[in-house]
Write a sequence for this structure.
């Protein structure tokens, strides 16, 4: 397949590009310096691919941090919503036949009544953060293009990712970094926010495998949860990180690291992805955590 | 009540202002020349109301034409989505206690399986036009502000409006204009688009009465359909217009007036508005049509 990636320079984009290369795909990347919220800039950048006959576009470019979005909602909507609108319009002109994998987020579900967990794709959307609202809005943008113009849009709703290379503005990566640091400098305690949250984690390498399977087997107009189906507390993952690192540290809670408004417990139903795409997560959580620790060790040692 | 209206210079805004005045409310209007998609322009304009302690904000300002939105989606999203985001942020600072009536549209439902008609507020959203997608997105913006910040947002989903003063880019007003013109110049035929569509029409004066009742009795975070509950074909309304006008004309179908992508048959369930707000439409459709004809007669004679 010939693939075009937006957001190729990001954490997920990098893993996706690697996975596509190793699957034998041809990979093109939108220049990451292009502001996709700027219609003419995006159209100009996309024009470079006009003769390429791309089979699939993986639309990952986004402002993706939940906490940061509270202070920058207009910017977040510009990139995540107007950017998606611009991408769909330009690809409608350049590659009308291409499948377009639009990456949304499990955050669109908001706080889900525990009785309805694990949550499936037909649940109502109840975004809690500007980021989540922007992703719910972008889904409408994308599915409208499917309904009105027949664009072959597929929506991916990934739950929490973990894996090597993730920024420490995400909780598991942040804790792994602190565990590695503590071990390096002999510290016996590390701070953490809300350890009692339950989330559904999938290794980023399994997530990008799901995206490629959507490009192969996904049905246009359909939404797919990408998740393990199991919720784990941050505390459990933190304990596993400590054990795997062989560190001797305790957590000290820092209320400053909590957000007032936060989705706490969430788990997804991945039945559709498993049965329609024959996808399932392959990487055990211990492997993911070990790789995250190794990545931070290499990175922190290098400085 | 002290009310602030955005979009006061529009068709619905004008009727709303009149209704609020006659109900004894104090009415403020946002300068209609302000581009609400421009954050700093809107904040500056809203600052004028900082000392006013407004009880309710009626957010009507929008690019509201379904057909036009296909050619101007980025602009439509700017005004309808980013504009709503800006309005909520500025009112969070200026009037955090105000109720905010965010006017969405029945277009968010898209094409509804006839088995699910009349459609209630819990139906899935499936926007078909960029306009509809922008309204679905704006609902997420507004409800996110309710969930995260406690803003007292209420969503109105009006179905089709009719009434004096409506632009002839809307079907019933367009037909009324042509009927009046035909009668004036003795023509025996008038062109029309898809007369077989079924829509749920409510007089704009009943619609704005529902908005005021939402300000009084509506529950924050809740969505209310505003509709009659009955679907009528455009053909039936067209025949009624001809009879009421005493005109002797026939319709000639013009496929150029049809849109390829259109919501055809729709009717809404207004149970929530009726039971929770004690609202019901008061104006018979014949009165609405007679008033629309009278308005066009006066307007076309004046030239």
């Amino acid at each position: 397949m010939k693939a075009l990636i937006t957001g190729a320079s990001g954490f997920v984009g990098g893993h996706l590009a690697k996975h596509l290369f190793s699957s034998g795909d041809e990979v093109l990347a939108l220049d990451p310096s292009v502001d996709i919220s700027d219609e003419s800039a995006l159209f100009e950048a996309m024009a470079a691919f006009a003769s390429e006959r791309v089979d699939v576009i993986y639309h990952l470019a986004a402002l993706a941090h939940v906490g940061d979005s509270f202070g920058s909602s207009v910017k977040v909507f510009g990139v995540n919503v107007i950017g998606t609108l611009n991408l769909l319009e330009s690809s409608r002109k350049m590659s009308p036949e291409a499948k377009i994998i639009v990456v949304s987020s499990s955050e669109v579900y908001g706080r889900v009544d525990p009785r309805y967990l694990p949550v499936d794709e037909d649940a109502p959307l109840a975004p809690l953060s500007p980021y989540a609202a922007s992703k719910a809005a972008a889904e409408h943008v994308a599915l409208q293009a499917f309904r009105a113009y027949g664009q072959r849009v597929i929506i991916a709703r990934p739950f929490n990712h973990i894996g090597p290379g993730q920024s420490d503005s995400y909780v598991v990566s942040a804790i792994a970094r602190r565990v590695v640091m503590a071990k390096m400098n002999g510290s016996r305690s590390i701070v953490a926010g809300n350890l009692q949250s339950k989330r559904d984690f999938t290794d980023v390498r399994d997530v990008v495998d799901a995206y490629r399977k959507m490009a192969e087997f996904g049905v246009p107009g359909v939404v797919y949860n990408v998740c393990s189906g199991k919720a784990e507390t941050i505390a459990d993952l933190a304990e596993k990180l400590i054990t795997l690192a062989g560190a001797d540290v305790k957590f000290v809670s820092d209320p400053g690291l909590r957000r007032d408004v936060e989705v706490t417990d969430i788990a997804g139903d991945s039945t559709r992805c498993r049965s329609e795409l024959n996808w399932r997560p392959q990487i055990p959580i211990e492997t993911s955590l070990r790789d995250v620790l190794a990545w931070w060790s290499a990175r922190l040692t290098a400085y």
In short: Chain A touches chain B at residues 39, 70, 73-74, 77-78, 81-82, 85-86, 89, 110, 122, 124-130, 132-133, 136-137, 140-141, 143-144, 147-148, 261 (CB under 8 Å). Chain A has two domains: 2-161+201-226, 168-198+231-266+284-301. Residues 181 and 300 of chain A are 8 Å apart (CA to CA).
